[in-house]
Amino acid sequence: MAVQWPLIIFTLCTCMSAGIFGMQGFLAYRDKGGDLQLPALIVSVVFIGIGGIASFLHLQHWDRIFNGFGHLTSGITQELIGIALIAIMMVVYFLVLRKKGTVPKWAAGMAMVASALLVFIMGHSYLMESRLIWNTYLLPAYYLASAFMLGSLAVWLIASVLKVDDAMPICAKASLISCGVMLVVVFAYVAFISTVTFSAVGYYFDPTSPTTGMADPTTYSTTLLTGQLAPTFWLGVVAIGIVLPFIISWMGRKATEVGAKLSRLLAAALVLTLAGGLCWRVALYVLGASVFVFY
Amino acid sequence: MTQYAIVTDLNRCVGCMACSVACKALNDVPVGNFWNKTLRIGPNPTKGGSGQWPEVEMYFLTIQCQHCTDPECVKVCPTGASQKMADGTVQINKTKCIGCQFCVMSCPYNVRYLNEVSRVVEKCTLCEQKTVNGELPACVAQCGARARWFGDLDGDIRDFEGPAHPDEHSCGYEDMQATRVKLGDYVEEFTDDDIHMLPDVGNKPSMRYILRNRTWQGGDE
Amino acid sequence: MVKLSMSRRTFVKAAAVTAAATTLTSAIAPLQGLAEGEDTTAGQVERIRSCCRACGKCECGVWVTVQDGKVIRIEGDESAPQSRGHCCAKSQASMQALYHPDRLRYALKRTKDKGSDDPGWVRITLDEAFELCGEKFGEVKDKYGGTSIFVMCGTSRVWSLGPYQGMKQLFGTPNADLAYQVCKGPRHFAGIMTDEMGSPWMEVEQEPSVYVQWGTACEYSNYDSTNRTVNDVAAHAKTHILVDPRITPLGKEADIWLPLRPGTDGALALSWMKWCYDNDAFDDTMVRRWSNASFLVVDDKEPTEGWLAEGNGGITAKTRLLTEADMVEGGKFERFMVWDENNERLTYWDVEVGEWENERHRIPTTGQWIEHPYKPLVADAWLPDQSSFADPATESDRFYNGSSTSNPKGLAKKPSLKPGDVSVTLKDGSVHVARSVWDEFGDLLEDYTPEKAEKITGVPADKIVSAVKAWTTHLNPDYGNGGIHFQLATDQNGNSIQNCRVLQLLSCLTGNSDMPAGNRGSSKSQFDGNPGRSNMWGADLNGVPYGDAAKTWTGRDKTLDEVAAMIQEQVQYFIDNKSPLAERYNNEVPGYDEAIVITKRMGGAFKPSQTWPNPKTIYDRNAGEIDAARFPLNRYWGRWADSNTVWDGCNDTDVPYQLHAGLCQSGDFMNMGNILVAWEGLQKLDFFTDINLWHHPNNGQADVIFPCAHWLEIDSTRVSQGAGGFFGCCCKAVEPQGDVIYDPNWNVRMYKAMGVPWNTRDTTADAWPDESRILKDNVDAWKTAEFPDGPTWEQAKAKFQEEGWFDCRVWHPERWGTYRRHEMGYRRQQGGFNLYPLVDAHPGFMTPSGLIELWSLDMEAYLDNNDDVDNDGLDHFPVYREPTDSPILHPEYYTEDNSFLMTTGSRQPVYFHSEHRQLPWCRELWPAPRLEMNPVDASRLGLEQGDWVWIESPWGKVREVIDLYYGISAGVVNANHGWWFPEMEHASKGFELVNINCVMDPYGQDFVCGAATMRSLPVKVYKATADNSPFDDPVPCDQNGVECIHDASDERLKDWLPVYTEEEWNL
Ligand SMILES: Nc1nc2c(c(=O)[nH]1)N[C@H]1C(S)=C(S)[C@@H](COP(=O)(O)OP(=O)(O)OC[C@H]3O[C@@H](n4cnc5c(=O)[nH]c(N)nc54)[C@H](O)[C@@H]3O)O[C@H]1N2
Ligand SMILES: Nc1nc2c(c(=O)[nH]1)N[C@H]1C(S)=C(S)[C@@H](COP(=O)(O)OP(=O)(O)OC[C@H]3O[C@@H](n4cnc5c(=O)[nH]c(N)nc54)[C@H](O)[C@@H]3O)O[C@H]1N2
Ligand code: SF4
Ligand code: SF4
Ligand code: SF4
Ligand code: SF4
Ligand code: SF4
Ligand SMILES: [Mo]
Which residues in chain A belong to E strands, given as ranges? Predict the structure, then answer.
């Protein structure tokens, strides 16, 4: 399936946004990181904004969006509702933060739950019977892991920049755990992909694109590990997207002393994670063949 | 209930693609996009044969919107632009479509595409503008091999109709349109085992394919 | 078939189901207008009944819808039985040609040198263009003579066939380069030498009970039966046999597939012959009574010479067949001797009177009516029983002189097929051994046992036997299972004429020619389907010689009245004998007036000797043909001059004289032979002009181009080619655009430009008559009670609009509504088909011997007994020759790992040869040329689906795209033909990059008629890569490095959508 860049940007940004929102909620729940709450909220809002714009760019007639955007079985309707709700919660979060200067537990909990829910809904909307490799709860699980990783790293970075010391150890730990979770989810996904079988069709010919080779879904199980997508997977998803961020997190975990160096390292880790997330999402599109593989 | 559909006799279909052009001529489908296509399946080694030429077999497979009973595309559509109609067809209300293309992704058969000019998604309408007037879909009427038949899947597929010759050379255009023959009275015998459909992942495609004495490729779970 | 007929109104009611809301959002109003259909309220809608010509094959009845003066749709006419409502992709895309921005709409003149990439076309008026042609052709003619001009034509655009006849006469040249040479021509040629010109055409529409699909694929070609028809035929036949190296779209359904090595059809057909020969599978009456199999041959006598009439006017026979003239002083050479095994004596067949010794042929009065699958749209046809030799004991009335000397034992004659050695004494007293043709043929067949044929063809012997057995085992006691549907492949794979002869002979001798669903030739209709092909010269003018009074024979030269009287007599005879056939005449002898109408519909008076045949045989008249030395029999045939010799003529390579100018109408230099040679030849000409719809490689070397009208803009008569049996009209749907010109008018104006009158026959019409008068000529023979003098074109057309297609069985019952016409005396007609009148009422055939010629007197005279020809002296029989460059003759061409035997040209359903590649709806469905290759070969060579590959032969190389096709044998590939790139700007339009005929062996030709061998060719195939391709691009590119279109998604296709205003027309 053709790579849909706006949707990739959208899911990436949404994961980032929800991850940050969730992570700051977690910190608030643990009564930590009070000073980064507002900046983190702003960053989170910015990312959901970018994501929203990207998804709007994907729509061809967003002017019509209000003519009837209420079809509840639809994943994107749910997604839109999710985004609307989380936006409202962000506002609420902002208001209580402004009013009280701190985040009450209920709000912190709400942020965590809402973030997770939004990411789940977003992932869920891609669960389509027709796309065998998408049609697994590992997909929302992946988005959750992605949000977890991005959120931990981003908030850690914010903490290091703003020198919010009390948040640092938690962020560090969360980062390290998120890398592990990600590794597990990705390899679980790879394992899942290797079990997906497309029915064999043998030779076939689509007259309208004679210069295109035949689709060969029998290679999908191996294409990530050893095939055409191996560089994307090993280098992009695993090395750049998980291992390097893990190493950086490991190196930074003990850094009680915050400084520019750590911030730079964490910024790098975040960028690497984004890149890794991009690679995986692209790979999923490439593997997103329909059950009916002829064309 | 009504479920309009097309049955294609794949032992008759020869891949001449007259159906594709018929659709274009009627429905203004953009160049480069297709509401129906005919793929060649095979030649593949015949099951139980030597595994090599000349023991091979092939058929042609016509693909278009399957007007599914439980269409994925309708489920995922946020605006309700994609709808299941009373006649069983699945239609897109172009004034509602926002072009999100989730329906495109969700359709198992890749029969939808985004029209680059109107920026809404399109696909086979089963020629509703014709069938509502009692005419046959263009691809059925013009099928080069009289392989396609139109009718209501809730009835017997042997009652599906195709174009037939009238009894007078002087027969006019309108009367010609109204002259029909039933699938069951025209095509070669077939059994229930010869009736196939495209792989179903819960969407329940409505189109049927008759293929005798050959291996149906691609599964129809 | 049960048909349902529902009036429109009731259906609308039934369909008006109340729509229930099925989704959350809304109650659903019918979403009409979702699809842009034709909006009947938007403007005036007109439906025109017409005949499609988006391909040159098959007259598909169509309805053209015109809305507000624009053609918006073309659909099949279900009431047209010859096409069964068929309307293919090409037809439905016709509007895209009519309104194409790049269509030629004005005459153009070259301003830059030939050979330059840009010809520098400038627009001129039609008058200027014709003037230029008159001047240039005039100059060449004066300087080098008319024969230095050649005319050129493609296939079957039926109103653009001027070069087949009239244009040759205009310049006085025998040199016509015609696609006919590789298409149908060989079958017509073989037919005229076997039983009838064009006889291989099979009446597929009648639905044979065993369908033998031999080297043809009508599902894509619609040649000359439609996809719809052959689909029904294959489904209804008890057995479907496919003879093809490839599995084909329809052949995939076959019960028996004989996958032969390309080019070996002759050997396979001879093995069928051999099996029939050994297993008495022939129809005894056809062999013994109606063929020359029993004729005696004396190998060691001097050939006997004499003039014999036949379809082409006559030949000077030179034969080793034993004739009466060899035996007795004053004996007739028209009497061919045979051994009568019942009466144990020599007897003879007298071709001049069309009788066996002393026997008068009695037209069978018994028989049966054969129903057509499309009854009642098609009338029943009469199948007479077979006649037999007279039995003196019971049927003395058959001996017109009252004697029974020819049957001394009182037994019916039985010409012996296998008499062994017969001792004969010639008139000089010498004693010789005579053998029958059948015995000699048996010797030849020894080399074609199924086992031996397996070695040649690759088809397992048991499959060969099962196929021929299935075909010859009668499923109906009264007649055979149908003909052999052999079409294009056998014309093009090297041994054309002989391939066609052996196949047609198989059909004849098994009793399947002119039988229900048999090989029965061209529909005999009341229209001539080729307007403007012939000029309207009076027979006594313009140098056409008078006929020869000396060449008369009994039974011809009958006036209208005399023929009418004969008909009255014949009907009386049917009535007297209680023949069901009398029903055809309402069981009444027709009165004089009615008899005249019948006579006229049968073709009128029998040709008086004064107009036909010519005093000189056609062979003698064509001595000056440019290919006379290379292909002597083409002199006899007289339709074409060998194409390859024509190009050599332009290039002055090994020819008797050079060619200096040429004219082309709806033809294409890319259609045969090696076209790189042809392109070079065109460049050398002093003058070349083409009339076309497009800028096309064919006019890339022209000096002047004319724009022709499109089929939606013209009127024409149409007759179903082949045995479909219907006639009708092509009817103008819209007015012509720009300066486009109707092809027949172009012919007439070319005459005018040369100062030669087109018409000298009709004193009431202009020397250069108008369209309506030209068309009148083509409907003139339709003399009916309604139009006793024949309708005008306008009347005929109006009748067609009203009444639809006309059934030849109804309007021409004697000559089309009757089978076994050789029994009836309805088959002796001058060469050509359709309308040519009968020349006499003899039984039998219009061959030199008047019978089916297993032993061809034509071949014998002009090849075997021609000192200039180097052959084994066996061509009187349908011998098998390996194609010129076959793996057997030239194993050295096939030694590499990537060597292949290539066949080409299996039809692409959305194109007609080089046509339609600029129509978006066609190109997007078949965007690039394909080379089919067995996946086993491909994987060995590292080739994948979709790779561009080089196809290289010793004579050239081009690129096509690999199509992994398991339906073809390893070691064999199949290439698409006709490719060029209209998207490219330069004069050649990229043909040299992609047209497969660039790799043809220029001298790979049929020994007899020169037909190019395009279906058996040595090539090497390898992947096109950046390294081995110009512009470092494996995809063919124009001279600026821009890739050709090769995918449906190419945006350039959209530039070719219809335009409706003059401003948008390109030059
Ligand atoms: N390799 C290979 N080559 C083959 C064959 C094959 O099987 N393999 N098949 C051969 C056969 S069977 C044939 S018949 C020939 C066909 O050979 P042609 O008939 O010569 O081929 P076309 O490409 O149809 O070219 C005809 C030309 O006429 C133009 N034209 C179309 N309509 C009209 C019209 O109404 N009026 C005028 N004036 N011009 C018109 C077209 O634009 C085109 O330039 O090709 C042969 N070539
Ligand atoms: N769409 C379309 N229709 C056309 C044309 C076109 O260009 N396009 N051209 C028209 C013209 S002019 C013609 S003549 C007809 C021809 O129409 P057909 O007679 O149907 O001929 P083809 O499709 O060229 O070839 C028929 C079969 O010959 C097989 N074949 C190849 N080599 C050999 C061989 O050596 N022996 C045998 N036995 N079979 C062989 C091929 O595999 C193919 O299946 O089509 C006409 N109709
Ligand atoms: S028109 Fe009919 S025969 Fe031709 S490809 Fe379509 S379904 Fe098949
Ligand atoms: S085939 Fe695809 S587009 Fe058509 S109804 Fe089914 S899911 Fe929807
Ligand atoms: S593209 Fe249009 S029809 Fe498809 S899901 Fe989106 S709104 Fe519905
Ligand atoms: S039913 Fe109508 S809209 Fe659908 S593919 Fe056929 S012609 Fe096109
Ligand atoms: S087969 Fe030829 S004549 Fe018939 S519809 Fe197609 S293009 Fe027209
Ligand atoms: Mo042809």
Answer: 204-205
| For chain A, counts of helices (H) and of strands (E) | 10, 1
Taking CA C578 as the corner, what is the angle to CA C575 and CA C582, rounded to the nearest 5 degrees?
50
Domain that holds residue A208: 5-294
Q: Is C399 helix (H, G, I), strand (E, B) or coil?
A: strand
Evaluate if residue C540 carries a pLDDT over 80. Answer: no
Kindly state the percentage of chain C with pLDDT values over 70. Answer: 95
Cα–ligand 2 centroid distance for C908 (angstroms)? 9
How far lies A70's CA from each of A56, A77, A78, C1038, in Å? 17, 6, 9, 52
Contact: C925, A68; criterion CB under 8 Å: no
Whether the CB of B120 is below 8 Å from some CB of chain C: the reply is no
Between chains, do B180 and C220 touch, taking CB under 8 Å as contact?
Answer: no
Q: Computed over its alpha carbons, how large is the radius of gyration of chain B?
A: 18
The SS3 of residue C729 is strand
- Please indicate whether residue B118, judged by its CB atom, sits closer than 6 Å to ligand 5: no
**Contacting B residues, span 70-99, partner chain A, CB-CB under 8 Å:** 72, 75-81, 95-99
Task: Please give the number of the atom of ligand 7 that sits closest to the Cα of C92.
Answer: 5
Compute chain A's Rg from CA coordinates: 20
Chain B partners (3+ C-beta pairs within 8 A) = A, C
Task: Answer whether 0.90 is exceeded by the pTM.
Answer: yes
Contacting chains of A (3 CB pairs or more, <8 Å) are B, C
Classify the phi-psi angles of C523: left when phi > 0, otherwise alpha if psi is within -120 to 50, otherwise beta: beta
**Domain containing A48 — which CATH number?**
1.20.1630.10
Listed by start position, the domains of chain B span: 4-210
Find, among B103, B91, B183, the residue nearest to B131 by Cα: B91
Whole-angstrom Cα distance, residue B110 to residue B80? 19
In this structure, what is the dihedral angle of CA atoms C871, C874, C878, C880, given to the nearest 10 degrees? -50
By C-alpha distance, which of B3, B9, B2 is closest to B209?
Answer: B9
Instruction: Give the CATH number of domain B4-210; options: 3.30.70.2470, 3.40.50.1100, 3.30.70.20, 3.90.550.10.
Output: 3.30.70.20
What is the pLDDT at residue A1?
81
| Gap from CA of B67 to ligand 5 centroid (Å) | 16
Label residue C831 by pLDDT band (50, 70, 90).
Answer: confident
CB C422 within 8 A of CB C296: yes
- Token digits of residue C401: 């002189």
* Token duo for residue C341: 């095994």
Task: Say which of B41, B95, B108 has its CB closest to residue A130.
Answer: B108
Q: What's C998's DSSP letter?
A: G
Helix (H) or strand (E) holding A139: helix A138-162
SS3 C141: helix
Report residues whose beta carbon is within 6 angstroms of any ligand 2 atom. Answer: C 55-57, 155, 183, 214-218, 220-223, 243-246, 248, 262-263, 265, 487-489, 493, 903, 905-909, 911-913, 1015
Q: Which of C13, C70, C90, C558 is catalytic?
A: C90
Give the residue carrying structure tokens 């009504």. Answer: B2
Q: Which of B65, B74, B85, B101 to mutate to test the pocket of ligand 5 (most atoms within 8 A of CB)?
A: B101
In A, which residues are within 8 Å of C974 by CB distance? none
User: How far is Cα B15 from Cα B187, in angstroms, rounded to an integer?
Assistant: 17
Residue A240 DSSP code: I
Domain count, chain A: 1
* CA dihedral (C708, C712, C717, C718) positive or negative: positive
Closest by CA to C898, choosing from C971, C975, C1001, C994, is C971
For residue C747 the two structure tokens come to: 């012919």
> What is the percentage of chain C residues whose pLDDT exceeds 90?
88
pLDDT in tens, A74-125: 888 898 889 999 999 999 999 999 998 889 999 999 999 999 999 999 999 9
